[in-house]
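Running this now, will post back.
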Amino acid sequence: MSRRRALVLTPRFPWPLDDGGRIAAWRCVRAAAREYETTLVSLVPPGEEQTTIPDEFGDAGIRVVRIPHRPPAAFSAAWNGLIGRWPYTIGRYQNPELSRRLRALIAEERPSFALVNNLHLAPYVDDLGDVPMVLREQNLECLWMDRYARRLGWTPAGLYARIQARRLREAESALCRRAALVLAIQEGEAGQLRTLAPGARVEVLPVGVDLSRYADPHPEEPPIVLLAGSFAWRPNVDGAIEFLRRGWPQVLARIPRVRLRVVGKGIPRSLVRAASKVGADPVGYVETMSEELARASLFVVPVWVGAGVRVKITEAMAARVPVVATRLAAEGLDLKPGEHYVASDTAAGLGAQVATLLLAPTVRGALADRGRAFAEARWSLDATARLQNQLCGEIIR
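Update: finished.
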């Protein structure tokens, strides 16, 4: 008996697994492929649609359709974000060819549902016909924009961000109400979505973690502190620089031989300069985080703007690396400060906590063990994949 079909949309091709967004999207499409004949439709930079598709997709039985997409120029996108149909972060992903291909795929495959990753692609609900849309909200978009605006203050950029937060709130409300099912990534944002979009069905689908991909820890000496993320996202850059300026000197004052590795794609010159100034190593992109995590004694997450959840925290805990983070960085993961991670909401406080933990190996070991146990209990890929397919199955007509 043939399996039912599913369509999965992502705003970027979910490979390589080099940032939290791609990791989350890959796990979403891979979970769908466990129960459905799955077609993945992704926007990609022009030319990338002709490159070889990684074997992992064929091995999972996933058909891949890549649509070349060049976002509008910055000024045009910013202006359209004020006067166009959609706010800035949604308008950048509108593509007539994607609309055309979706209509053709709907007619050809007659999928049971379309699983749309992120609000950015939700306007394509107009191209799905009578196919129900499942909207995966990796972030509550209006929430993170509102927080970003507050962080910027009453600057021109901050005023623009305030306008975008209002427009996003309106768009998010309307688009969630058009979905047959909204999958929030954490309970707090699910509650806010239910208030924002009355009548919408909102369920929680936690982030999933591949618990098998992490090597056994072998922390090096002198100890390594790891600061990792995608630095194409400005709040990650701002948080890292703040920590380097105000937090890392606190660590060096107590443990002069300690090393800090700043790992992730898109490191800008400003972050390279800030890291080099205090003797940290701006590593940049690495093929896999597994070995970086295995070598580290601690993982620090200096983030003061965001929404959703930080996939990098779940990965560090799964890899048995103790985490020091702001409370906002750990938001939505049901973690208790002092039990699952160590918290501070200032850069200097993060530095002090890092130094204290480096000098307390027994405490670090206990945190690492509790973190791994929590990851196994909450975020296994099998459990989250089953839940995703169960929830999607409930809305099939």
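The chain has a mean pLDDT of 95. More later if anyone needs it.
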